[in-house]
Amino acid sequence: WALTDTIPELTAGHKPKVYCFENMQENAPGQALAAKALAMRFPGLLEFVQSDVDFESMPVAIPGCVGGYTIGKLKEQGLVVRSFDWRLDYMHTLVEAERVIEDCKSTGTKVLIIVAPPQHLPRALITVISVVLRSYPDLLVFAQPGLELLWSGQSAQSQVPSGLGKAARGWQFVAVTLAVQLLSLIHI
C-alpha cells in the first residue's frame, strides 16, 4: 500500500470496487474524471460504489457538501454507480472508510481502489489502511488521485480554519492543506 503503487492489470475474476471519497463540490469533477479514466482502462471490470449522504439533514452541516453531488458527477461521466444510503449524524474520513471496507468484506471484494482529491488522498489512504488492518486484512487497496485543478481554479477543504475561508487559490490552498494534513497525522 502506497500512494505510488501501480494498479495491476485486472481480470474478470477481480471485480474491484472503486470509491470516491466525499469532498467539497469544487473537487468532485476531478474525482469523477479520474474514475472515468479507470473505467476506460478496465472496461466492464469495476464496480463503482458511492455514499449517498444527506448532508443537509445532519445536525452540523458541512459547508460545500451537498447530498448526491459526487454521485451526480460520476453519472455525468456515464458511470453506473451503486450507492450506499447512509443515515448519519456526522460524516468524516473514518466513517467513510469503515462503511466501504464493511461493504467490501460482506461482498467478498478483494480489491478496492479509492479516489480522492490530491490534497486528501494521503489522509484517505492512511485511514483506509488502518481500517483494513483491523477488519479485513485480505483486501488489497490502491489509491488514485482525482485530477488536479488548475492553479488559477478553486479548490476547497472542509477543515480549513474558518478565518481563512473555505476556498483558496493556488499556493495559499496548498500551504493550508499541507498544514491541515500534517496536523491530522499528529493525532492519528
What does this structure look like?
The structure is a single chain. The protein is 37% helix and 19% strand. With 188 residues, the protein is α/β, with parallel strands linked by helices. A 5-stranded parallel sheet has the order 3-2-1-4-5, with helices on both faces. The protein has a two-stranded antiparallel ribbon with strand order 6-7. Helix 1 crosses helix 2 and helix 3 crosses helix 4 (121-135). The two termini are 18 Å apart.
Q: Summarize this, please?
A:
The chain has helices at residues 28-41, 69-76, 93-107, 121-135, 170-186; strands at 17-20, 47-53, 81-86, 111-116, 140-145, 154-156, 167-169. The protein is α/β, with parallel strands linked by helices. Helix 1 packs across helix 2 (69-76).
Poorly predicted parts: 160-172
Largest pleated sheet:
5 strands, parallel
> Which series of helices and strands comes N to C?
EHEHEHEHEEEH
Q: What's the total count of β strands?
A: 7
- Estimate what percentage of residues fall within beta strands: 15-25%
Radius of gyration: 16 Å
Class of secondary structure makeup: alpha/beta
What is the helix content?
25-40%
- For this structure, the quaternary state is single chain
Number of helix segments?
5
How widely separated are the two ends? Answer: 18 Å
Tell me, briefly, the overall form: globular
Q: Roughly what is the average pLDDT, rounded to an integer? A: 77
Spatial strand order of the main sheet: 3-2-1-4-5
